[in-house]
Records
---
Amino acid sequence: MLKNYMHKRERHYAMLNNNRVVQPFGWGTEFVSEHANGGDPREALCEHSRHVVANSDEYFAAPEGIEFSLEKRLYPSAASMNAGELKKPVVQTEIPFLSWQSAVKTPSVENNTAIATYFPHENKRAAVVILPHWNAKAGTYFDLAKYFNKVGLSALRLTLPYHEERMPPELERADHLVAPNVGRSLQSIRQSIADTRACVSWLKDQGYEKVGIVGTSIGSCVAFMAFVHDMRIDAAVFNHVSGYMADVVWHGLSTYHVRESFGDNLTLEELREYWLPVSPMAYMDKLAAQPWRPQRYIYTKYDLSFPVDLSIDTMKALRKASIPHSEISLPCGHYTLGEKPWVYLAGYKIIRYLHQHLR
């Protein structure tokens, strides 16, 4: 009975967003190689995948020589709101914003300026990088950041690529982050990881001794990739879990329009191989070989967007690799995790864990 109820709620929330567009399919080899020469895109993407997984430390290296700018800006900004929101009265407040030029350059000029919202605590011992979910609106996770402040932790909430101020004018949704363009999605996730590592670098430059990370949904995937490739991250919480990005997009409720765009151009097995460089399952052995760091994985039993069998498979992979971890399973779904009481329970599990391991 609970399963049926939760699935009904999940479908209801998913369909509230009626601006999903079936975009044209594209191989996008030009987004992953400067020397795309019109050859077989399948072969090019396979070769790219093999090369990245074998050389991931180089591919996901922390950006160097970044010039950061920290200034107070009015929130919410006009650039972060859509036309409907701008028609309503807006109350703005000043908040510290960090900006820099992303190390990964994309064709969208707006997207190349990375932005993060800073919530400092007077005690600069520890801070948490917050990575939102796909299509998160301006201001989401600000409450989480403020709760981190209440327990003595600073927070830095990253605006993901193609979101808010980073969204090019032709988009209503962040469709370039998870797209039916195979190469563009790879570039977008790589950019997300580069921007995340830049956040860690900035926090370290400010004198923070410990840095944690929490990511939700696609933010969880990005957080995992950053965690595996950046030993400066001392503890992590991954909120919604899957080992393969391709399987989430192929089977997930939230990405049905992306799946429709793929059509018959490729199979799930092919997509899984092409997107392996940005899939946690590719780096389990790498994580297992590292000195252990605290890590918590939260998933929901009735998730239709990150289907629960994918989460369970990931937990099995962690155990098979003998990676000690904290595992939390909540009796709700992907969207319903944002409802009471689940949102409070998840928030407690996130804040308590990071506070415990970063203090």
---
Amino acid sequence: MAEGKVALITGVTGQDGSYLSELLLDKGYTVYGLVRRTSQPTLGRSLINHLLENPNYHLINGDLTDQSSIDNAVSETQPDEFYNLGAQSFVPESWRSPMMTSDVTGMGALRCLEAIKRVKPDCRFYQAGTSEQFGEVREIPQTEMTPFHPRSPYGCAKVFAFEITRNYRESYGLFACTGILFNHESPRRGLEFVTRKVTMTAARIAHEVDECLWIGNVDAKRDWGYAADYVEMQWRMLQQETPDDYVIATGRTHTVRDM
């Protein structure tokens, strides 16, 4: 158990953020989730509504595009661990909004690191990476030593986040690391992703709402894992004696057709 530890999580309302919140609360942490201030404060929080009555779970306002709000969040919460899961993570949207994607996904990581460096340099930092950093596959399997060749603005932003995290680790001695996660799924996955498209359409066909599923390349291969397992790996990375970067994957691929 980690009684008395404090964690700060960005992207707390998403799939990984909700599972990580549950994991840390079960381990005795006090958990703070960073959320943007909106005129509809309950909008988009369905995955964490069941946690809001827990006395050790708190939401605080902040924005990855605003350095002062990140500084204030770190100063207010004094976290032992900071998990940066926040991002604009939908690849097609990164082509429509490349500058916003870069600001949130890439520069957002830098703002988190700057806040830790200035305010609480003993805080351990986890940066959420992605297999999209590898992009055009040049070797199989990909490892921590595989060169990056991103093929989207989202992938490029994540490569920047990876490199700046490593740079702050090496230059300032921060305990900062990146988990390069391959696809990980769950019932909490967003409906814009292929696994949820398949399951949702299957349900609609079963209820005679739809007649068929329209999908792209059914022979595309993906390494799919389970999100709740992967957030435990994120936590384990911050429990090591020394910080390092790790690929998190099952090591097995399946096609969309298989699914």
---
Amino acid sequence: MASVLVPLAEGCEELEAVTIIDLLVRGGIDVLTAGLTEGPVKASRGVTLLPDTTLTEALAHDFDMVVLPGGAPGAERLDNDPRIGELLKKMASKERYIAAICAAPKVLANAGLLTGRQATSFPGFIDTMEFSNLTYLEDPVVQDGKVVTSRGPGTAMDFALHLVELLAGKAKRDEVEASLQRP
């Protein structure tokens, strides 16, 4: 079974975090949520999320994918935590999947993981003036190699379904999507 780490930081976008976690679990994927610190995480709209563990404890495990939820304050906290940058570089060196949505693709850009790649984000977070070494697209979900990025809360379901397909196959994605009654 594929395994995914979802780091949760104070100020993360709860719609994105919960959608990602929920759809990956529906896809039969083992998901571990990890707070940057111990205890509950207050998300951007005040919803309290309870991570499975801390990032320090999670780093002792190996994952097939790491997914960074967005939300400007949460993404900034992820970006400022050196353990996240180290984790992302380790995942890239092992050719594992790295995914980020909304404001979080900026964390990937700052870690140098979007250099020479196509990517997307919430408008204004990976400005091509600051990051001229990437190709910015406005597609809902962009995959370039093992890196997947997405725009924001409105694209969270498409993003999560794309991740299910990468880790569990098209048939599982179709099964999960059918159960959602999407138009």
---
Amino acid sequence: MMVSNLDFINIAMTSLKRMTPNQKVVFKTFKKDRKVEVLKLENSYTVIEDGFKNNIIENLEYKEIKKILKEIQKIEFPRSNKLWYSISTVLPEK
């Protein structure tokens, strides 16, 4: 589904509240060459930035995510108007 870049933070935060553990929310640019994933674990969150920068930020609390997503939005989606948005389930590692 396509969403507005202006709604990126609000949609991400709302989705994270509603998600169950081992699910992730993914935002990609229109060309799908850059993406940001937020993985919900049992007691924490992990943000994966894959695009201009490649970072993994682990062991985050819910209240820390908004600030990090704002910084990532400026770097990864500076001129994007629309973003691809999806929620998927992640299989736990064995």
